[in-house]
Write a structure and sequence with these properties.
heterotrimer; A mainly alpha; B alpha/beta; C alpha/beta; B: alpha/beta; Rossmann fold; six-stranded mixed sheet; four-stranded antiparallel sheet; 10 helices; 10 strands; globular; disordered C terminus; C: alpha/beta; 2 domains
Chain lengths: 281, 280, 274
């Protein structure tokens, strides 16, 4: 694991992404202690511009925006990471099954994947919220539902290639059970690009969560960046800081995940980056 | 030679191909092939690329289903084998592939590659598997085995990788190994060593080989019988197929081998027309 | 002899970048090719022969080597020291070309063969003139229906035809030296013989020097005048092809020859000749 981190640190964008995410992670965990004020309490006049007392100003009901953004990190990161992994679980299962078994299973599962890929996310989430009401877990599920086809396609692509490889044929000839072939022979070899995709999907999930929050569809009881943007809408012309700082936070997290994905890609697939000169080996 | 262990009867497999335009053409990779492989013999199947020899190997290994025709395992139709007989087939018929690097899982150490197979077939227990794996490596000439057990495939040379692949096949005590171009990616000195290893294993255990190859010279030293494939069909077979070729294709194939002797090679320039019409 | 020396490589050292450290792929090698001569370099995989061949025609990407030193004189010019621009000019002016084992990797899959040969021609001409030149080159490379081939994409050709297309591209600059790295190893035996016959004809008709890199002693016996034997980045010996096969100086060479000979049985034709 440390060796892996060291290899990421030697890539071009990996260390920056890793640093950003580490800082965000620390903030997410320690937000309560770092935050200068109680994020839920009215601590000043409403709509104060940024000052030394309130680094990012205050919002419409007088809460300290800096504290809100710090606390919001937790929900946004949690939704980003957990929906990426939930998507991996769904997409992974579908991709593995579609990729290993040929014929009807393959066709049916991939059509299902495509169906979800063309389904408009917002409508799905609206539908779910209309049915169950907005809450944190539902949001994770909804975002995961929107992004799992990406994971499924990556894993499917890997499996379709790997199932033709000779070491898989050798395992079949040695009569090893199918579960062994899928889990022990193919899966470990299929994972590298999937890890990259999970990092990318985490940033995508944060963006989707922000979008949903912006539309007022996020959990009203949890502070998140998207939700801060939702309240900021009404004050766009009078209090720029209310939208700029949560927006910047979203931006930072997305850039962080993307750079990490870049770094992972370089580690996993060095040829793609280094092969600047077009001579095949 | 005793009763055939594996036979093919009117075996046919076609592929849809799109080569050369949008029209789909059906190519018969394996076309009405009849074949018997007897216990303890080495049968070489030779042919050029596209002759269907690799497709035939995959059919014989049960990795693909034929479009028509039968494969018989010890006289029983493959498609109606009972689960027990099928397990017996999977143990008795093993494979070695062309590219040794690709035929070993890059993320498994040598010992794990062997252990998976041995544990699944109950040829060893958790406590004995390491020693058993070491014994298999020893048997294929990877000595001392302790130097190789913990290595990953990419830490081995091509010849060593192919020996591990052979060890994995041999671990199941097979009666027949189907080897698809087992030598073609290796240097000639390594090829010679592997051919010697195959002969030695055969003498020691009485196992048979089906060797698929495009290299007549490599095959000739170990094959008891040769079958020549051309466009999906076996055009000629027998013990003397390469020495006294009858079919024009076999003759062309035999004459096309390069001669590692400058005088003989150059003498041939006058015999054969300098430049035949390029094939399409 | 030295007056007609086309390629003169002295003390060439190429160290390649590897995952951990460097590999001394070519480790102090001397190599000469006279005008119109056919020279072979034989060795087993990993001996550095392909690296040597690519270094000689300056086709090693900068990112791949850690160190490159020594002299590579082509027609008296030290091309090891040439700037990229000067090198490009030299390539276009009847100097050297190279063909490879896997032609598919060196042909653009999205373009037809004709334009790919056409763009290798050194000077600009009218469209019909270019087309005629392209057809002539394809025919010279042994493709009997150049007009049809020129309209095809690489994937529509067989392996032998692709290699011929690559030869046509290589011929476009009327090279005095053609470097061929395992030119026929990926081809079927019958096709291999035909492509070798084409190379031999080009060698004789154009007086073009050939530098053949191969693992196959049969190919050397077939084609080459003089042979270098390479092992672990160094030249073990160099001899006239007949001398090499009759009295190999180095035990490694002797073993390679013995193994190849053991592999080869007399063909029916030779039996008839006996």
């Amino acid at each position: 694991m440390t060796a892996f981190l060291r290899r990421i640190a030697r890539t071009r964008h990996g260390p920056i992404g890793l640093a950003i995410l580490l800082v965000l992670l620390v903030v997410a965990i320690c937000a309560r202690w770092i935050a200068p004020y109680d994020p839920k309490a009215q601590v000043g006049t409403s709509l104060l511009p940024p000052s030394s007392a309130h680094l990012m100003g205050t919002d419409n009901i007088g809460r300290d925006l800096f504290s809100l953004v710090l606390v919001g990190t937790r929900a946004s990161l949690a939704i980003g990471i957990s929906s990426a992994f939930a998507a991996l679980l769904i997409g992974g299962t579908v991709g593995v099954l579609a990729g290993y078994f040929r014929g009807v299973a393959e066709a049916a599962l991939m059509r299902l994947t495509e169906l979800f890929q063309i389904l408009p996310v917002i409508v799905v989430v609206l539908f779910a919220i209309a049915l169950f009401g907005a809450n944190f877990w539902l949001l994770i599920g909804a975002v995961a539902l929107a992004i799992w086809p990406l994971e499924a396609r990556v894993i499917y692509g890997q499996f379709v290639q790997l199932r033709e490889r000779e070491f898989v044929a050798a395992a079949i000839v040695a009569d090893l059970p199918t579960s062994h072939i899928i889990l022990r022979e193919i899966l470990p070899n299929a994972l590298p690009p999937v890890i990259v995709q999970v990092a990318l999907d985490a940033s995508l999930a944060i963006l989707i969560e922000s979008g949903l929050g912006f539309l007022g569809l996020s959990d009203a009881n949890t502070v998140s960046w998207g939700q801060l943007l939702f309240t900021a809408q009404d004050f766009l012309d009078s209090a720029w800081w209310m939208s700029v700082f949560p927006g910047a936070a979203i931006c930072l997290a997305v850039v962080g995940f993307n750079m990490l994905a870049d770094g992972l890609n370089e580690v996993v697939n060095p040829r793609a980056v280094r092969g600047a000169v077009g001579l095949p080996a | 030679m005793t009763a055939p262990i594996l036979s093919a009867r009117r075996l046919t497999q076609s592929f849809a191909s799109r080569a050369g335009g949008w029209r789909r053409r059906v190519v018969r990779a394996v076309d009405n092939v009849d074949l018997d492989v007897c216990e303890g013999e080495t049968l070489a199947i030779v042919g050029e690329s596209g002759s269907g020899k690799s497709s035939l190997a995959r059919l014989l290994l049960g990795l693909r289903r034929p479009d028509s025709g039968q494969i018989l395992y010890r006289g029983e139709d493959f498609s109606t084998l009972s689960p027990a007989r099928r397990r017996a087939y999977r143990r008795e018929v093993q494979a070695v592939f062309q590219d040794p690097a690709a035929s070993l899982n890059p993320r498994l150490r040598v010992q794990d590659t062997l252990a998976h197979v041995m544990l699944h077939h109950r040829l060893a227990t958790r406590s004995t598997v390491r020693d058993a794996a070491a014994a298999e490596l020893h048997a294929v000439g990877l000595t001392p085995p302790d130097n190789f057990l913990a290595r990953y495939p990419h830490q081995l040379s091509g010849g060593q990788q192919q020996r591990v692949a052979i060890a994995r096949a041999m671990a199941l005590r097979p009666r027949l190994i189907i080897a698809d171009e087992p030598l073609s990616s290796l240097d000639i000195s390594v090829q010679t060593q592997l051919l010697e290893l195959m002969t030695e294993l055969q003498q020691r255990t009485g196992l048979g080989f089906v060797v698929i190859s495009h290299d007549l010279g490599a095959v000739d030293s170990i094959a008891h019988r040769v079958a020549v494939m051309y466009r999906g069909r076996i055009v000629e077979s027998g013990e003397q197929a390469l020495r006294r070729p009858q079919h024009p294709y076999t003759k062309a194939l035999v004459n096309a081998t390069l001669i590692p002797d400058p005088r003989l090679a150059r003498a041939r320039h006058h015999l054969a027309p300098a430049e035949p019409v390029p094939s399409s | 002899m030295s007056a007609a020396l086309l390629l003169d490589v002295r003390n060439l050292v190429v160290h390649l970048r590897a995952e951990n450290g460097v590999v001394r792929a070519v480790d102090g090698v001397d190599l000469t090719v006279a005008s119109g001569e056919c020279v072979g370099i034989v060795g087993e995989s990993g001996c550095g022969k392909s690296t040597l061949a690519r270094a000689v025609v300056r086709l090693l990407p900068n990112v791949e080597y850690a160190q490159l030193s020594g002299e590579i004189r082509f027609g008296g010019i030290d091309i090891a020291a040439l700037s990229p621009a000067a090198l490009r000019r030299l390539r276009r002016s009847s100097s050297f070309s190279m063909i490879f084992q896997d032609p598919l990797g060196y042909l653009n899959p999205t373009r037809r063969i004709g334009p790919q040969v056409g763009e290798a021609l050194s000077d600009t001409r009218s469209r019909t003139e270019t087309r005629n030149r392209v057809h002539a080159l394809l025919r010279e490379a042994g493709l009997t229906e150049p007009a049809t081939i020129a309209r095809r994409y690489p994937h529509e050709l067989s392996g032998g035809m692709r290699q011929r297309a690559l030869i046509a591209i290589a011929l476009a600059s009327s090279p005095r030296l053609l470097v061929a790295d395992e030119p026929t190893s990926a081809l079927d035996a019958t096709v291999q013989l035909q492509v070798l016959a084409t190379l031999r004809r080009l060698h004789q008709e154009r007086g073009m020097a050939l530098l053949i890199v191969t693992h196959d002693l049969g190919l050397v016996a077939e084609l080459c005048d003089r042979v270098y034997v390479m092992q672990a980045g160094r030249m073990l010996e160099c001899a006239d092809v007949f001398t090499l096969f009759d009295t190999p100086a180095h035990p490694y060479t002797a073993r390679l020859i013995e193994l190849s000979a053991r592999r080869h049985r007399p063909t029916p034709q030779h039996e008839a000749a006996e």
